[in-house]
Amino acid sequence: MHRATSKRKQLIRRVIVYSVMTSATVALVTVLVLLMLGYRFNRDNNSIQQGGLVQFISRPNGADITIGRAKLANSTPNKITVNPGQYTVTMQKEGYKQWSKLVDVTAGQVLWLNYAQLVPNAIETVPVRALGKASQALASPNSRYIAYSSTTSPTVLRLVDVRSSEYDITNISLKQSSAKSVMTLREWSADSQKLLYTNRVGAKTNWEMVDAKTSGESIDLSTTYDIAIKAAAFDPRSRNRVIIQTTDGDLRMIDTSSQSLSPIMVKNVNQFSLVDSKHVVYRYQASKRVQKVGYITLGQTETRDLPVDGTSVRFVAADTYFGTPYVATASTAALMIYRLNNLPTSSSDASLTATSVAAYPLSATPRGLEWRANGRFAVVQHRATFSTYDNELTSYATTKFSTKQTDALRWLDSYHAYYYSAKDMKVVEFDGGNAYSIELENGLSAVLADNGKYIYSIAKNGDGFALMRSQMILD
């Protein structure tokens, strides 16, 4: 005879079922959350350990990935979470040399290996446009143009368009130049439309600006505004404004659209650089024996000192990395990296503090200092070497040039620098890794095509110079 289950037993059964279901749900959610946070079972020590996420991207895609002893099932682009530690990572694709790097994976952190350039086993380099005589060249920021000049035609600036099917050349007559002048290309505007250059005649050097899209429209800034200029840089907010440092150490602004010269912004400036298209950071002589580091926000008149040591500093540069401002200084003794709590407008009275996060001795006089990759790398250059501090990995590496360099280090993209020897172009990653060479004689300048398939450069070819095309992605 069937007996109905008592209400008490039904209640107990429901409580047990609901408890088990709740516990299972909580356990499942906990496991999923731990997996999302990168926790994995470490078989080496039989423990649960938080790993680090590694992202792999190569140019071209489709490279096989090995990290440590594990070969991943899928090719680039790919990602994987691994236990903390040091690993050798390789990426390999048929027809290309193996890319390799020793990396440190940190628990709870993302390591971006998104800059791997796979190099063909044999780089094919061919001339695609004869250029005649060339003495110097400067690539535009948008990687479309290479401006070049010749000592045989000092009054003409030429632009070769690497994106056009016939590699079109535009000739720009420089009205302010003369046959006796020595021209030096200096800087493109951020939008790749205007170009700064200097003309030296005897002991006098004039700074001039030309519109690359309007042939012959050049302005002699030194003469027009009757001012002796030591250094200049485009205002990142406008191609028509130029920040200048006079030979007397005054920092001023030239606006060619309104044909105006600003009042003195800062006095006794020794060197300056731009920060985030918002500020100018500089070192200045506060007194006869005291040098300090300060900054001014573009568009404002008030200045402010930075709480960093300016003693013996030769170069100062600043940038923001994921919202946190950093300042780098280079002296003959050391590269110093400071982290700021913020970088308010120079008219602000908000608190401003600096924490020293890295210091590395320098064995030679620095020739330049800059931040790259949106504040990730601080790069200091010497004649024989360049050194890089990696803000993300807090690491430091020094790379030796194959031949001593008098020109500033140049970049194909945010991660790959290049320089020339007599017979080839050397390309290296920011830390000197995965270096390769392209056979070029007397190379002048280079750009990487948008799709990464070609590197275009100007180099000697026979009796003259030519636009050379080096294939980096195989068909």
Q: Could you outline the blueprint of secondary structure elements for this entry?
A:
Elements: H1 7-36, E1 39-42, E2 47-50, E3 52-59, E4 64-67, E5 70-71, E6 78-82, E7 85-92, E8 99-105, E9 110-117, E10 125-132, E11 136-139, E12 145-150, E13 153-161, E14 169-173, E15 182-188, E16 194-201, E17 204-211, E18 218-220, H2 221-224, E19 229-234, E20 241-246, E21 251-255, E22 260-261, E23 269-275, E24 279-285, E25 291-297, E26 303-305, E27 313-321, E28 324-331, E29 334-340, E30 354-361, E31 368-372, E32 377-381, E33 385-390, E34 395-400, E35 410-411, E36 416-420, E37 424-429, E38 436-439, E39 441-448, E40 454-461, E41 464-471
Parallel strand pairs: 3-9
Antiparallel strand pairs: 1-2, 3-6, 4-5, 4-7, 7-8, 10-41, 11-12, 12-13, 13-14, 15-16, 16-17, 17-18, 19-20, 20-21, 21-22, 23-24, 24-25, 25-26, 27-28, 28-29, 29-30, 31-32, 32-33, 33-34, 35-36, 36-37, 37-38, 39-40, 40-41
The residue ranges in which pLDDT falls below 50 over 5 or more consecutive positions are none
Structural class: mainly beta
Instruction: Give the strand order, joined by hyphens, for the main sheet.
Output: 5-4-7-8
- In one word, what is the shape? globular
Strand content: over 45%
Key words describing this protein structure:
Methylamine Dehydrogenase, Chain H; Immunoglobulin-like; mainly beta; 475 residues; four-stranded antiparallel β-sheet; 3 domains; 7% helix; globular
Protein model, in words:
With 475 residues, this protein is mainly beta. It folds into three domains: 7-36; 41-117, Immunoglobulins (Immunoglobulin-like, Sandwich); 125-471, 7 Propeller (Methylamine Dehydrogenase, Chain H). Helices cover 7% and strands 52% of the residues. Strands 5-4-7-8 form a four-stranded antiparallel β-sheet, with no helix packed on it. A hairpin with a 6-residue loop joins strand 7 and strand 8 (99-105). It is globular and about 110 Å long. The model has no long low-confidence stretch (mean pLDDT 90).
